User: Which sequence fits this backbone?
């Protein structure tokens, strides 16, 4: 019998369903009422609810609460540090059944090859990984990336079944200025979902940005900013990552009026936070704890996110919809006890999933061996110099000014004043640039921490108070083919190798979390006061987030969109 006829027959009860989840309490996303129900499934589709069904296979619901599978409306798989397959093993059992991914981290290193690698993974996963094609590779002209993607590079990928549209358009000054390359991409993707990225943009400038056809925005950090963006036609994606934590500021917005126009996203969430707190299940718990009505929160976590990307076949437990179902022991605690994905129990689907594509991007960290002398900063004429001010829990930074100590014509780090050096080393083997400056907020008393993860061009970034330690840490990252390193001036204290494009490892999730704990402890031993030092390091070279950043070309004033000279 053809699939459609079989679905109809099973939904109408003329045939036993392929699978029945029996005796659940189904959360009605419209009214918030818990309704007694069986859920009948044919293939990967729900065919019956709110009725009694017989099935060839039966999962006993035992009164558990059934809600739709969760939709992460914007994330970077690379921030998990593991392959898409390993990420799936972490988040699918927590109820995440759809991921909307922007692969611009690996795209900035490897270009189309990196995007195709993610798409190859998407084709074998049990959950549904959808891809927004990376719009800003590189993010700006003020850094050296491993690749450059124009509209003509992206258009051939539009026919892939896992591709939705265009990912976050971070270069909002370029949009407003009518940059021809950006306009070509926006025109090529007209009518498709286009993600926004415009922190603190408002007024007529925000109108101009929206007029480009951009429809989602995940950089709102306050209520008024989010409301203006909602009122100007954006779907606001409430983000709670490992650095950018906006949920508590925006959760009060979740209501019957706004929930159709909101969604949840993690953007950048590292393995330790997933293990210790959760993924979207954590956002749901925290939003409910903050006072948002539970059924509106679950609507935001599923139906609203699906609607934002034209995925009309999911996010609602009803006949004809994709059978992505989460069974909960407790609604308010989002206590996930079992997951069905595409009509199959998640554990079974994971066990049967084929292996993914082989790793790509080996040997992508190409730098000359560094010495302590490479981190010297000549003293300028002016006494004061610009300093990047890190704000814990934010990717926005402050522009500060300080007068570092001087010796022999050089500027020195000053751990007593929480003033460390920061350097960004071009690592794609193109020019060997090194941008140098100062950063406050890490609390380092000695040593250095280095990372090949540096949004978005992913050059090698190192923060330290001893030049010898900075050189040791950076060189070890290169030896590992990418990764994280904490070092003193004499030795490496902790490390994690990320040899896939300098961004990811093919090691299992538990090994990664164990290594991250060692790195976190080693950074604390050097005096670091930040809870997530490596994620804070990773956002120092992101020149599209206010206010002061650094790239391999030097300090960058995001507000003026120009490099800063040390006078």
Assistant:
């Amino acid at each position: 019998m053809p699939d459609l006829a079989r679905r109809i027959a099973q939904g109408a009860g003329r045939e036993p369903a392929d699978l029945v989840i029996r005796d659940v309490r189904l959360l009605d996303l419209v009214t918030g009422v818990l309704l007694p129900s069986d859920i009948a499934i044919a293939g990967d589709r729900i065919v019956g609810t709110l009725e009694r069904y017989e099935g060839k296979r039966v999962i006993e619901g035992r009164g558990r609460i059934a809600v739709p599978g969760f939709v992460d409306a914007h994330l970077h798989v690379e921030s998990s540090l593991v392959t898409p397959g390993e990420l799936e093993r972490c988040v699918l059992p927590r109820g995440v059944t759809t991921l909307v991914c922007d692969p611009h981290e690996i795209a900035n290193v490897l270009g189309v090859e990196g995007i195709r690698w993610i798409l190859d993974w998407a084709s074998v996963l049990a959950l549904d990984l959808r891809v927004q094609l990376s719009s800003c590779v590189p993010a700006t002209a003020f850094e050296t990336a491993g690749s450059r993607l124009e509209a003509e590079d992206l258009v051939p990928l539009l026919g892939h079944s896992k591709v939705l549209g265009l990912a976050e358009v971070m270069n909002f000054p370029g949009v407003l200025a009518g940059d021809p390359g950006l306009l070509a991409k926006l025109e090529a993707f007209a009518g498709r979902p286009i993600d926004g990225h415009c922190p603190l943009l408002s007024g007529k400038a925000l109108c101009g940005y929206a007029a480009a056809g951009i429809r989602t925005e995940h950089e709102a950090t306050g209520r008024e900013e989010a409301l203006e963006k909602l009122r100007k036609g954006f779907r606001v994606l409430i983000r709670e990552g490992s650095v950018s934590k906006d949920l508590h500021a925006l959760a009060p917005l979740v209501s019957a009026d706004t929930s159709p126009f909101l969604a949840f996203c993690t953007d950048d969430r590292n393995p330790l936070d997933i293990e210790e707190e959760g993924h979207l299940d954590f956002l749901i718990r925290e939003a409910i704890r903050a006072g948002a009505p539970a059924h509106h929160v679950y609507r935001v976590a599923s139906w609203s996110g699906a609607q934002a990307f034209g995925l009309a076949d999911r996010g609602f437990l009803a006949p004809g919809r994709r059978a992505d179902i989460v069974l909960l022991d407790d609604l308010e605690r989002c206590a996930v006890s079992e997951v069905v994905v595409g009509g199959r129990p998640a554990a079974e689907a994971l066990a049967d999933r084929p292996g993914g594509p082989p790793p790509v991007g080996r040997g992508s960290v190409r730098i000359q061996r560094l010495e302590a002398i490479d981190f010297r900063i000549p003293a300028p004429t002016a006494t004061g110099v610009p300093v990047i001010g890190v704000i814990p829990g934010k990717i926005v930074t402050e522009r500060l000014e300080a007068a570092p100590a001087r010796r022999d014509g050089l500027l020195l780090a000053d751990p007593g004043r929480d003033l460390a050096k920061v350097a960004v080393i071009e690592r794609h083997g193109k020019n060997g640039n090194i941008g140098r400056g100062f950063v406050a907020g890490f609390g380092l008393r000695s040593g250095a921490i280095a990372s090949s993860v540096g949004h978005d061009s992913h050059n090698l970034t190192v923060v330290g108070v001893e030049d010898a330690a900075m050189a040791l840490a950076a060189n070890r990252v290169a030896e590992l083919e990418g990764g994280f390193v904490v070092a003193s001036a004499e030795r490496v204290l902790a490390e994690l190798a990320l040899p896939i494009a300098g961004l990811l490892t093919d090691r299992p999730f538990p090994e990664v979390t164990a290594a991250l704990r060692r790195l976190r402890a080693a950074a604390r031993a050097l005096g670091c006061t930040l809870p997530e030092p490596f994620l804070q390091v990773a956002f120092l070279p992101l020149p599209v987030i206010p206010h002061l950043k650094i790239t391999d070309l030097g300090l960058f004033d995001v507000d003026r969109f120009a490099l800063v000279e040390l006078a």
About this structure: The chain has a mean pLDDT of 96.
